[in-house]
Design goal:
Blueprint lengths: L3 E2 L2 E11 L5 H18 L1 E10 L11 H14 L9 E6 L5 H11 L2 E4 H12 L3 H15 L3 H8 L18 H36 L4 E7 L5 H9 L16 E4 L8 E5 L9 H6 L1 H9 L2 E7 L5 H14 L7 E6 L7 H14 L4 E2 L5 H16 L3 E8 L6 H7 L1 E7 L3 E8 L1 H15 L2
Length: about 450
């Protein structure tokens, strides 16, 4: 996709119809989100066209008058003597049919992308792992499949039916063949993903078994500051970019400074309003990090006026994947971007009153991060148990396992060996006790 013209960032416009059932606040929030999506694709949105209608115009989405208005605006941007950057794309804030897109393109004289196609394009560009690329392709094929019949009509002769072999039978149309190829390819990709899921679950199981590891998953709306918080909590070099869906692949790092039990933190793909259902389904394996977690950090952009809508979207998607019962801490992030000190204090008081036990913070403030770190550790330590272990001098090779898997509260020694009073998870302590019993029985 060409996003630069003569070294300049390509310009685009956004067009949307506001239906009677959509409030002004919801409508503007959706438009702002689409503009951010366009930015992620590399476009600069220079104008937004809106229209209130009781229904979408069946032939070209927008009404005829609005189409003329957009056409004139685009034509003006192409005037060579003005030095303007021409408009390269019209982004439509709904999913539209191929015929609507083609008619709109013909009338305004510019390429058109609907909301779903924009999100698919971003996912395709940012997918890095084999699993993410396969999931994106499934979503793209699922988006194309129901449109093939209509696209065949637009294509004319290419949508015609093929004759049967030897003149017998009606044969298959190009559309039917293409649909069958898509079904076969989706089935092939699903098999690949299933195999990768088995491998991924095995890796997660090994992580959980090693030294009593605990898992925390960051979830929330895209661009809520999850990656910044991830970097602050783990001390790792995680991509932080002010773009929607800057990364799609799950990142896993250890909580830093390290604790007992050891805690792994995962950053999942961000949620978004009107995320195409095919993408929710195909990215389920990525979102399943939230299902495997013992604790969710639900990160919310406190500086966004529409944060309540973001919160609801995340809750809805978590319910769709069956993660609504996982314990969670609501983390209202980006408080440093909420006006002056007085505005921040007022906003914080409102959030704490409305969402008891929430964290109100900025991932850029070390003291805030330290408090959240303590809360995470406290969550996992509440189920720890204390016991005493005796380590004979002949079994000192297990000393490292004791210190790495437990919190050593007290240690003293005599002629026979060392005595430890330790705190740890039941699983780790039972494993150490079994190893020590085996050694003592030798």
């Amino acid at each position: 996709m060409q996003t630069e013209v003569k070294g300049k960032i390509a310009h685009a416009v956004v067009a949307a119809v506001q239906l009677p059932s959509v409030s002004d606040v919801e409508f503007e929030a959706s438009l702002a989100e689409l503009r951010d999506l366009a930015k992620t694709l590399g476009f600069k949105v220079v104008h937004t066209f809106t229209q209130k209608r009781t229904a979408f115009e069946t032939s070209a989405y927008l009404g005829p008058g609005k189409r003329v208005e957009i056409r004139d605006f685009i034509a003006g941007s192409e005037a060579t003597d003005t030095g303007n950057t021409p408009i390269e794309m019209v982004f439509v804030d709904h999913e539209i049919s191929p015929s609507q897109a083609r008619n709109l393109e013909n009338e305004v004289g510019c390429d058109v992308m609907d909301r779903t196609m924009v999100i698919l394009g971003i996912f395709h560009r940012n997918a890095r792992s084999r699993a993410a690329r396969a999931q994106v392709e499934i979503a793209r094929l699922g988006y194309m499949a129901p449109r093939l019949r209509e696209m065949a009509k637009l294509a004319g002769p290419q949508g015609r039916q093929r004759s049967g072999t030897g003149g017998r039978g009606a044969g298959e149309s190009h559309t039917e063949l293409d649909k069958r190829k898509i079904r076969d390819r989706i089935a092939e990709l699903q098999q690949e993903i299933a195999a990768m899921d088995v491998e991924r679950k095995t890796q997660r199981s090994r992580r959980q078994e090693r030294q009593g590891l605990a898992n925390v998953a960051l979830v929330g709306y895209t661009n809520a500051g999850k990656s910044t918080l991830m970097r602050a909590l783990t001390g790792s070099d995680v991509l932080v970019e002010n773009k929607l869906f800057a990364t799609l692949d799950t990142t896993v790092r250890a909580l830093y400074p390290e604790t007992v039990p050891h805690v792994l933190v995962s950053d999942t793909v961000g949620f978004i309003k009107n995320l195409p259902h095919g993408l929710v389904a195909s990215f389920k394996s990525t979102l399943e990090e939230a299902l495997d977690a013992s604790l969710l950090l639900h990160v919310i952009d406190a500086s966004d006026p529409g944060f309540e809508r973001q919160l609801e979207v995340t809750d809805t998607v978590l319910a769709e994947i069956g993660a609504e019962t996982v314990p969670r801490i609501r983390v209202f992030n980006k408080m440093d971007q909420v006006g002056d000190a007085s505005a921040q204090a007022e906003h914080e008081a409102m959030l704490r009153a409305r969402y008891p036990d929430c964290f109100v913070m900025s991932a850029r403030h070390q003291a805030d991060v330290a408090m959240l770190h303590q809360a995470i550790v406290a969550f996992f330590r509440k189920d720890l148990i204390e016991t005493e272990l005796f380590l004979p001098w002949s079994a000192q090779k297990l000393r490292g396992d004791i210190f790495s898997g437990c919190e050593v509260l007290e240690e003293h020694a005599d002629a026979e060996g060392a005595f430890f009073r330790v705190r740890g998870t039941r699983e780790v302590l039972e494993g150490l006790t079994a190893q020590l019993a085996a050694i003592n029985n030798i």
